[in-house]
């Protein structure tokens, strides 16, 4: 990939600003087995949300398609942090991309304990998920309140020297006070948005379609909401030099460029991978073409360059 796409995000060198999102690639192993998958087009892989103890996740059904979106209620199914560090990461460390752990917990102490385990591992950074809407323990309660969000980030900050990315929820009245609180507590970057809470109904059984009753909406349907949140976050984060991984419904290079213009430094691809697991390469080269066409020398020069309406 061209040097024009090379970025440093919170100190993590990335070959491109294209990041693959947590929950949409497992721990990356399936990608390694995929013919034609180009890891050099990917800046980093965000691994599946990991808790201290293994979790089986929510009862099925866990997925429901919506018009231009996807509802999921996986429930943070994962084998536990110790297993990830001891058995999965050693198989992944050779990949020519960066690895970012994604951590969750039901208490501040659990977040810190998971971060401590990843601190002693080859991951390049830790994403703190304080925004999973699908389980009580998923942190959404922490992510909805500036004080609790700051407590989690401060505790994780003490537990690790790895770069910290805090993943914010759109399910709040105003995302900006939460961002200010986690920046003050020591996060190195922000990631937004996680899924929007929603539900679907089976009219034959007259029951919710998802086993969990409700789920998180992702995919193209949420892109306009995500763009606005990233634009709002940029106003708060840029003065502190805090970068943003913009995400929510990105499926084309044009979508990714919109996020860069409103203030993202990197772009995350999640749900679009289920339709086309090779989309990351297309998005990275599409951004590179745009830079050439617009006569812009480096992708970092696009961030936050939206003109006023
Ligand atoms: C099936 C599925 C599982 C997810 N699991 C996680 C997770 O474990 N941790 C997390 O922080 N986000 C998780 N997410 C949220 C995504 O990482 C991403 O923030 C969100 O889906 C918005 O991006 P998208 O519209 O490109 O998918 C999950 C999303 C989906 C669709």
For the CA atoms, what is the radius of gyration? 18 Å
Structural class: alpha/beta
Are there runs of 5+ residues with pLDDT below 50, and where? none
* CATH level 1 name: Alpha Beta
Bound molecules: flavin mononucleotide
What value does the average pLDDT take?
Answer: 96
Encode the helix/strand succession as letters.
Answer: EEEHEEEHEHEHHEHEEEEEHEHEHH
Q: How do the strands of the widest beta sheet line up side by side? A: 3-4-7-8-9-10-15-16
The level of helicity is 25-40%
CATH topology tier name: TIM Barrel
Q: Largest sheet, if any?
A: 8 strands, parallel, barrel
Tell me, what's the shape? globular
How large is the count of helical segments? 10
How many beta strands in the DSSP annotation?
16
Report the span from N to C terminus.
33 Å
Structure description:
With 309 residues, this protein is α/β, with parallel strands linked by helices. Helix content is 32%, strand content 20%. It is built from ten helices and 16 strands. α8 links the parallel β15 and β16 (266-269). α5 runs parallel beside α6 (175-184). It is globular. 54% of the residues are buried. It binds flavin mononucleotide (FMN). The site of flavin mononucleotide has 27 residues, from β4 and β6.
């Amino acid at each position: 990939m061209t040097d024009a796409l090379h970025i440093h995000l919170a100190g993590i060198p990335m070959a491109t600003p294209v990041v693959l999102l947590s929950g949409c690639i497992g721990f990356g192993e399936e990608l390694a087995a995929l013919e034609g998958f180009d890891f050099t087009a990917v800046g980093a892989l965000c691994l599946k949300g990991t808790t201290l103890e293994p979790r089986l996740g929510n009862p099925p059904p866990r997925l429901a398609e919506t018009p231009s979106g996807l509802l999921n209620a996986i429930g943070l199914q994962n084998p536990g942090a110790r297993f990830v560090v001891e058995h999965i990461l050693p198989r992944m460390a050779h990949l020519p991309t960066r690895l970012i752990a994604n951590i969750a917990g039901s208490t501040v102490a659990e977040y810190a304990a998971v971060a401590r385990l990843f601190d002693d591992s080859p991951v390049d950074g830790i994403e703190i998920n304080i925004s999973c809407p699908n389980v009580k323990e998923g942190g959404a309660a922490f992510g909805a309140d500036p004080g609790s969000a700051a407590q989690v980030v401060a505790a994780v900050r003490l537990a690790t020297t790895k770069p910290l990315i805090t993943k914010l929820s759109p399910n709040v009245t105003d995302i900006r006070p939460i961002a200010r609180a986690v920046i003050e507590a020591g996060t190195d970057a922000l990631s937004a948005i996680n899924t929007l809470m929603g539900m679907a109904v089976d009219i034959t059984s007259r029951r919710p379609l998802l086993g969990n009753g409700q789920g998180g909406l992702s995919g193209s349907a949420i892109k306009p909401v995500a763009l606005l949140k990233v634009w709002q976050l940029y106003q708060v984060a840029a003065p502190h030099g805090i970068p943003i991984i913009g995400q929510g419904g990105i499926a084309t290079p044009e979508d990714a460029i919109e996020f860069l213009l409103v203030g993202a430094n990197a772009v995350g691809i999640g749900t679009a991978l289920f339709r086309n697991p090779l989309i990351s390469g297309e998005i990275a080269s599409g951004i590179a073409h745009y830079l050439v066409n617009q006569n812009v020398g480096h992708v970092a020069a696009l961030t936050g360059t939206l003109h006023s309406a």
